[in-house]
């Protein structure tokens, strides 16, 4: 047999070609075999291509897919492109290349890189959110939402850059300034499409319990949904026939209210501002409109506000209290108005200190301390004081009693609020799915008939933002003008497009049936494949994408399109790759190009190194000597394998045992997401062999070892598998080896020998020794003999693998 040297370049291109020729990665739709759906968060195909940081998640998902395939599962491991949206459009504008052209080009490059990785993606199932066969159903889902009252239009203030003359996404606003030109942004009211995700708030929260997801992600989602139990309380106005409704979680502090605050956008603001305060108040309101909610909530430099000149009455005791305006109260939470209790709320306390408003303590830390009110901030729950008949109750009792009292007279109502807001679903941008609605003078909003889908995105030369706050599509006369589907009169298309999250909210469904022209996915196929068993991606998606996908899934479940209501059973968040202390990124000098590494060491080495470099959920540092080490290891495995095939040694019991131990260890570590430590096991196994059996492995053990290694280094494994005389791919005919615990366990064990229940000696016996053998051996011990000497044994007890006990009687 010729003793080849390890040449990754030759091996890897050989096997990639072979896989392609044999359609090795095609997924069978044999809907009877047990399935495993292993999914990567699909990438946005940027112009920069992949660097070694991106490889981590893709390799992990490929290792899992191949592992499951070797275990006999029917594995779905697809890939596609999150191609619509702002990043692609901005990139195109920057480079002056049409997004359609640049997206296509970038996809080509990504696909080449992913293929070179040796990943088993089934490219027959590739999806692309900007492909009209795909977005036809993104639009179809929107229409279903519209028909079910979940999509609606509303005037909403959006972030507006007066210099770029365009709306900006929240992510594009940095400290209140435009990310691109640093001009201060303003808020501009625009009619927007909204999705009523708030209708699903309770289910999105409750069903988190069903998910095998990192606790951190679940916590972030639940905070984002932000369920808050409290009450709405009505404060009648003094001298005006009207009232202010507030939302509070602390009705127990009602006697401590010393003022009311309205958000600057509150509809009563104009009514309440008295003429002498008007100038100052108007200026303040205008000023606040420029700030984003985030700024308003996190503002550190003191509270600001203005007095309206008006008063309200506290419904519990008829106290007359002043009404202020301040931007620490947000219009889009609760009722946009609060009852301020400076003694027990830190924001109110700060505000009251600035404006010299009285602080009235009504909660004491403990029941003894019912003394004089001090001007100190106390935000915990406690015992009510200075609260009339409610004094002496604890906070919980006080809340209930006060709400009940006011409820009878119609001044309060228990209320649950959510932080979650309806989803602003329209973008004034070109590169997205057109919203399938037609506006008609006679009929109003008319949904595009389903048989007319897709509403195609027209190809245009100019796709920059229009400057008027309208989508660039508004400039394309022959596209927007269309007859009304209902009455036939001239009408106009909706020109806003969907946000980049639209396609990714349901793409996992499409992979199961990517060519279906009738529906998003055949129900039987969806039943078989979904939900996704294992979903792998970065933690930047902890909220938005994962929440939107859950929302879409629940909606599709509700309309009977699918039979499951959570898309991703198990989620794994992959850590980042740092180099020289910074996150690796294309724009920084610390970027290591994966092409470069693949050219130098081969894809298998990079794959193995990625899995070896640290716990996959944690950030890890790229290290050049680390990859060298992994390459040397593979070379060593290669050499031992070649030797094994040349000498073909017989099977040895110690090797068999080591192999079984390895199988057990690798399975445990893979299942527990400790891939990096699985690789250490491979390394010790090889070290053991090099030391004890330099002649190598017998065929059976070599086959098992190579199979275990195959998910990590598929080209490498195929080559050795073939050299072993197999004519078909290891992933086709190979089977994940089983281990036998009896073989793994040591064949001898050490057990204590007791006399009258006291340990007198220990000895090593065969694990499966019979009682006679064990007793005989124990009696031969000099120590035991000396204890028994002259006495008689009246009972011999042997508890297999545990203990021997002699019951001895003195003569
Ligand atoms: C009186 C009070 C007294 C409050 C006290 C708190 C402590 P969560 O838990 O986040 O729901 N609030 C209500 N609406 C608001 C708005 N639109 N903008 C800013 N703050 C608002 O918070 C509920 C509490 O946040 C409410 O309870 C209200 O202040 C404030 F010792 O009412 B509280
Ligand atoms: Zn019409």
Structural summary, described in words:
This protein is α+β, with helices and mostly antiparallel strands. It folds into 5 domains: 33-136 and 501-571, HUPs (Rossmann fold), CATH 3.40.50; 138-197 and 423-493, no CATH class; 228-417, Alpha-Beta Complex (Isoleucyl-tRNA Synthetase, domain 2); 594-737, Isoleucyl-tRNA Synthetase, Domain 1; 746-809, Ubiquitin-like (UB roll) (Roll), CATH 3.10.20.590. Helices cover 37% and strands 19% of the residues. It contains 28 helices and 32 strands. The strands form 10 sheets. The chain has a 4-stranded parallel beta sheet with strand order 2-1-24-25, with helices on one face. The protein is globular and about 110 Å long. Ligand ANZ is lined by residues 228, 247-250, 253, 329-330, 333-334, 336, 338-339, 341, 344-345, 417.
Number of helices: 28
Q: Kindly report the CATH topology of the largest domain.
A: Isoleucyl-tRNA Synthetase, domain 2
Helical content stands at 25-40%
Q: Give me the Rg, rounded.
A: 35 Å
Largest sheet: 4 strands, parallel
Mind telling me the CATH superfamily name of the largest domain?
Valyl/Leucyl/Isoleucyl-tRNA synthetase, editing domain
Ligands in the model, by name, code or SMILES, are:
ligand ANZ, zinc ion
Strand order of the largest sheet: 2-1-24-25
Mean pLDDT: 91
CATH structural class of the largest domain: Alpha Beta
Based on Cα principal axes, name the global outline: globular
Give unreliable regions as ranges. none
How many strands in all? Answer: 32
Name the CATH architecture of the largest domain. Answer: Alpha-Beta Complex
Structural class: alpha+beta
Termini, distance in Å?
Answer: 75 Å
Strand content: 15-25%
